[in-house]
């Protein structure tokens, strides 16, 4: 992958009140890559995702997306630049139907593609098609995660941010969701930045990855390199997958 990164995070520090949550983070994601960020609970992974989306804003450092400095932009302006997020905890609209949730994801600029985009989401997640008139709150955890990703895709993003897509889901469902992400990347060329506790699944899927500890990036490399690294294995891969 050559050329300018699609996303370049440089020296970013983010605070909650007086508490520093990110301590000078450097990350880049190039067009067409899947990049993952792994680390223990509370390492600052979700904070980085939220900082990229402008809430909270970085106190120092810069975030450049597609050649534009978005560091101090409000969240809705960042979204309009075609960064879509499937946030941790899914956060779908529980009282709205599946179809209405997808409508909420489609930007006003994309309404002319609405039916085409809905069909794409339904092809990727056939379960959502079966449940399109059901309220979001009545779906299973796995279906809600599919809906959260589907809703993000309705914005036709250049960059998809996925925050803990496998959290609390059965292994089989997780496998399906990771396969869908891989397919989007390969067939549509979608660039994906993924925060994930399931380090094994994330590293297998990713072109490159970063390890975060206490708000700092401590390691980076290809997915394969980090999978093979003894310290990464000891910290994140022991006791489960090998």
UniProtKB/TrEMBL annotation:
GO BP annotations, alphabetical order: L-amino acid transport
One Pfam family in the UniProt entry: ABC_tran
PROSITE patterns: ABC_TRANSPORTER_1, ABC_TRANSPORTER_2
Keyword presence, ATP-binding: yes
Domain annotation ABC transporter: ranges: 7-239
Keywords: Amino-acid transport, ATP-binding, Nucleotide-binding, Transport
Coiled-coil parts of chain: none
Keyword Cytoplasm attached: no
SMART domains, sorted: AAA
UniProt-recorded Gene Ontology molecular function terms: ATP binding; ATP hydrolysis activity; branched-chain amino acid transmembrane transporter activity
Family affiliation: Belongs to the ABC transporter superfamily.
The protein's name in its UniProt record: ABC transporter ATP-binding protein
